[in-house]
Specification:
11 strands, 7-stranded mixed β-sheet, single chain
Length: 163
């Protein structure tokens, strides 16, 4: 993986998003923080503001090898409601690009049918959103090009798996 995109929306989980960005960048992966919307400043679920690199309209998603969703609520719900992002996730998965999600965000992949028959994990208690998946309790699950993880406590293993 040479280039990755991490998506930021109001209510994202700061540790999950920034741990991934930090570890991937330290590992030499060009990692863009992309704001879903038109404002580069996005506020996480604990009121920490993060300035992203690009807005949704500025990003060329075809240029990335991996599309990564941090968790958090209501952030994960907002990610799943964004039609452009959900279309991009389906297209990336179909092309064999890495599609990854942590915490509540794997439920977005489940709703899109991307977890069908694959081992997957998510934040404990949200497993019903892993539609069609072989639900696991492992810290990180890898199934072909789909990577899922459980939450804030697994952010480092998730990021290292992606690296």
């Amino acid at each position: 993986m040479k280039r990755a995109a991490v998506f930021f929306v109001e209510g994202f989980e700061e540790v999950e998003a920034l741990t991934v960005v930090d570890i991937l960048r330290r590992g030499g992966v060009q990692t863009a923080m992309i704001a879903i919307g038109s404002n580069l400043l996005v506020t996480g679920r604990t009121d920490i503001g993060v300035r992203c690199d690009k807005t949704w309209d500025e990003a060329d998603l075809a240029a990335y090898d991996a599309l990564i969703l941090p968790g958090g609520m209501p952030g994960s719900r907002y990610l799943g409601e964004h039609k452009g992002l959900t279309a991009a996730l389906k297209e990336a998965a179909a092309k064999g690009k890495i599609v990854a999600a942590i915490c509540a965000a794997p439920t977005v992949l489940g709703a899109l049918g991307l977890l069908e028959g694959k081992p997957a994990c998510c934040y404990p208690g949200m497993e019903e959103g892993l539609l069609g998946a072989d639900k696991r309790e492992e810290p990180v699950c890898v199934a072909d090009n789909i990577v899922t993880s459980r939450g804030i406590g697994t952010a480092i293993p998730f990021a290292l798996t992606l690296l």
